[in-house]
Sequence to fold (252 residues):
Amino acid sequence: MNPAKTCLVPVLFLLSETPLISAEKTMLRGQLEEGGNIICMASSGKSAPIASAEEMVVVDEVANHLIDSAYNFTWDADGVLFRGTVPPASKQDGKAVARVRRQKWNTFRPIGESKIGGVGVTAVGRGDETFTAQRWIVQAQQGKAISGKSLYGILMTGAKEADVLVTCRSKIVDKGSGRYAYTYTVTNSSKSAIDFEWAGIKETIEAGKSFERSIESQKLTQEVSGSAKIVFKDNSKYTITANYWKAPSGGG
Fold:
């Protein structure tokens, strides 16, 4: 086991797929250090899009600064897991350039800082290591469904659109005459086939393909907390936050 220390630092954060109310946002961050150098960092940032005062967007990221080894990680925040594998850092001009795995998700319920937050990481030749890192999580158990709005969870390798691997999206559309269409879409933007479980759906999706399920109903249900489990062809496994609109039982 290598000697390491943890650090929890408040910093500024700015990231959203839509314009923000303010340029100043809050990030929670923890890091694992060795010899004064960061070897792994976890950060969680929140923002509120201008287009929807009720919506909150959260981005959670784990960065690997080790050049010679991938990190398997499990980030537990009050029992809500973000889990996966971050490849080794690349090397440019003799310096490590961190590689990351990121989840981006939204909610229409209140969020707050987790009471407990810890990241467990494992790398070849290093054994198990842990460090403290709180995360933004949903505070309410359920919230009323909103027609015309989407809930999503996205697995990414960075901040750009081209870095998206998998997207889970739940949407409600008003069809008129008191009927609503609930759609559940999983898009595999990676170069690998995936197996996934989310919102009661279990399927396999080939690289570059999507899966969609739709249900019509006269009912508006609730937003519920959800996680998507994703397994790639190389057997790398991820668990990401992906809330969704609860499917109406039996349609109708």
Summary: The two ends are 58 Å apart (CA to CA). The chain has two domains: 5-138, 142-245. Residues 1-24 have pLDDT under 50 and may be disordered. The first strand starts at residue 5 and ends at 13.
